[in-house]
Amino acid sequence: MKKDWWKDAVIYQIYPRSFQDSNGDGVGDLQGIIKRLPYLEKLGIDAVWLSPVYRSPMDDNGYDISDYQDIDPIFGTLADMEELIAEAKKRNIRIIMDLVLNHSSDEHRWFLEAKKSKDNPYHDYYVWRDGKEGELPNDMKACFGGSCWEWVPEVGQYYFHQFSVKQPDLNWENPKLRQEIYNMILWWMDKGVGGFRLDVIDQIAKEPDQKITQNGPRLHEFIRELSRETFQKGALITVGEAWGADVERAKLYSNPDGSEFSMVFQFEHIHMDQLPGKEKWDLSPLRLVELKQVYKKWQTGLYNCGWNSLFWNNHDLPRIVSRWGNDKEYRVESAKMLATVLHGMQGTPYIYEGEELGMTNVGFTDISQYRDIETMNMYRERKAAGYSEAEILKSLQAKSRDNGRTPMQWSDEENAGFTTGTPWISVNSNYHEINAEKELADPDSVFCYYQKLIHLRKENRIFLDGAFTLLAEQDQQIFAYTRTDETEELLVCANFTKDPADAGVMEAWKQAHPDAELLIHNYKEAPGSTLKPYEAVIYRASH
Ligand code: TEU
Asked: How many CB atoms lie within 10 A of CB 208?
């Protein structure tokens, strides 16, 4: 097997809770995913990244693991997991598991032991500081609200948690813990998984006394050891989630020598509608010119010395068509435009469930409709800080993680064909118009467009290795770039707005490349000198 098969792969992310229920309990499960493998095969993807399905009390929907070597009963059994791996393999689809190694659940047996006493052998698997009840070691705040420190009277110490109080941080300084983690990973590798996504991996090397969480001093040392002891023994895809990555660090993470990971998820582009120093809830319009610069930096910065992941969406982010496209009159056009711009770049593209249907934000109008711990916490905090209900709901409608977590819209049937029971979170009411059944039947659908893009990437090597050049850098509407190799050139040109845009840059390129062939286009009529709302094209020409 080619070691770097993942370079020309397209990955599909499944949020198992919301993908397909098979037993009517309102929660998606592994048998549901098995049932939908033909759909994934039709789309043309090479691997599925599964958000966590391990045993968990579900304080953070599975990102709080209480047993890394078992499947949570709401999703099925270990046998179902083995069946999924085997069935997917028959269709040439690999299964990528989500590893949460920064923290475990407080219900993990390690933590249950750790909190019994200071001399318990598991105590040092977690991060503790002495103190007095009520006198916190420092003022660090947890991601889901409150202090990072939680008092445990039994041991007279505080434990450290960067996320919820039910997600105690693991102590990577402890070599015994590291070895247990490696054994667990090797066990999954034996089961035939195709790779791993590593949750908040840049936060494992914390130094709470220095208030360091991200990019701690021993981070790359830990990652190299982890990679050497596990991943490097197989041809795996590994992708680290690294909110704190810049280009220089990403070169380490995705070093072509394979010493760390295949690639990382970095989030610089995701911040282009957030103002510096502000929170994601403080809404602000997309800064397109800056977004283009961010891509230029990453596309050129990692060229030949690292590898990019390409994504607009995941289970923590709002739906891209609602965010930077137009989920009303130009939903289809803008969903296709966003896909074109992303899939034209160098890197491994990730499609988040429902993105290929142009699924939209859910637009909940009442706090009781939300489920996510981050949302609940933000609501409490902003209420206490005096924000109005309307302001809070507006932020949530735009940015709540639940926007990406509503059930997959399969059909026009009740609950969008997701479940015969009561879904754990409401289905988006637009499922009558937006659903997979409808998309599959329509050759002009968003689904068919994604299918075509995936196919194009496979057929044309230039998508894999062509060098990126940004065009029309200061243009406020157009996102255009070329990809060039020794023999060919691609032009990707898109109108990122709902107003017509001058297509001078495209015209000039076409004049210089009279033999150019139109590979994909999101309108029926041939492109003219003005790009229509959200119009997007990819041309190919030889030199
Ligand atoms: O997310 C990391 C993370 O930092 C997020 O909490 C992020 O800040 C937030 O979603 C942006 O609003 C990972 C997982 O993807 C997420 O689902 C988990 O909640 C989190 O880690 C804790 O495991």
From this structure: 20
8 A C-beta contact, residue 499 and residue 531? no
The domain total for the chain is 3
Say yes or no: CB of residue 267 within 6 Å of ligand 1.
no
Q: Is residue 308 part of a domain?
A: yes
Q: Do 214 and 232 belong to one domain? A: yes
In whole angstroms, give the CA distance from residue 251 to residue 167. 30
pLDDT at residue 173 tops 80: yes
355-402 per-position pLDDT tens digit = 999 999 999 999 999 999 999 999 999 999 999 999 999 999 999 999
Positions annotated as catalytic residues are 199, 241
CATH classification at residue 374 = 3.20.20.80
Confidence at 543, pLDDT banded by 50, 70, 90 = confident
Pocket probe mutation, ligand 1, options 58, 65, 316, 378, max atoms within 8 Å of Cβ: 316
Task: Report which residue type is found at 44.
Answer: G
- Structural domain contains residue 394: yes
477 plus 509 within the same structural domain: yes
Q: What phi and psi, each to the nearest 5 degrees, are found at residue 311?
A: -155, 150
101 in contact with ligand 1, CB cutoff 6 A: no
pLDDT above 80 (res 1): no
